[in-house]
Amino acid sequence: MTTGELDRFAAWIEELVRRRGFDIDSPRGGGKSRLADEAGVHRAAITRLLQRQSMPDLETMRRLAQVLQVPVRDMLIRSGRLSEEDLPLPSAPSAGHTAADGRRLTLEEAADGLGVSADQREMFIRIAGQFLPGEPARSAGRRAPLASD
């Protein structure tokens, strides 16, 4: 990773953070602490990123993506960890992702089709929802398609 890559990624994160209403410019650092708390990460990880000292680890990126409401895919590509070729978007929903009536399957329907047990259903939906492009993580109670438009 080059200094330029870290700088570009941190600048993108700063923009997202400000857009989501976190006051990261305050000398008291309240916005950084609140962001760290909401993401469930250590404040030092946020500080190091915003000061362009280090790139967050994958788990921190995943948690930040959820709080900042961006796809994990975007975080990984913008960080330089993976490329768009490594994480291609589906060109169109395949027949395997559609219900009999032609609409896209929801995560709940996918869990049913895959035989996910009731005790693992919520975790399956939460984790699978993180990998859908253009969508923040979803809760178990919401119906969500398997592929974006």
UniProtKB/TrEMBL annotation:
What CDD domains does the database record attribute to this sequence? Answer: HTH_XRE
Extract the coiled-coil ranges from the record.
Answer: none
Q: Which SMART domains match?
A: HTH_XRE (SM00530)
**Pfam families in alphabetical order:** HTH_3
Checking SUPFAM superfamilies in the record gives: lambda repressor-like DNA-binding domains (SSF47413)
What InterPro entries does UniProt report for this protein, alphabetically?
A: Cro/C1-type_HTH, Lambda_DNA-bd_dom_sf
Q: Which GO terms describe its molecular function?
A: DNA binding
HTH cro/C1-type domain residues are 35-75
Q: What is this protein called?
A: XRE family transcriptional regulator
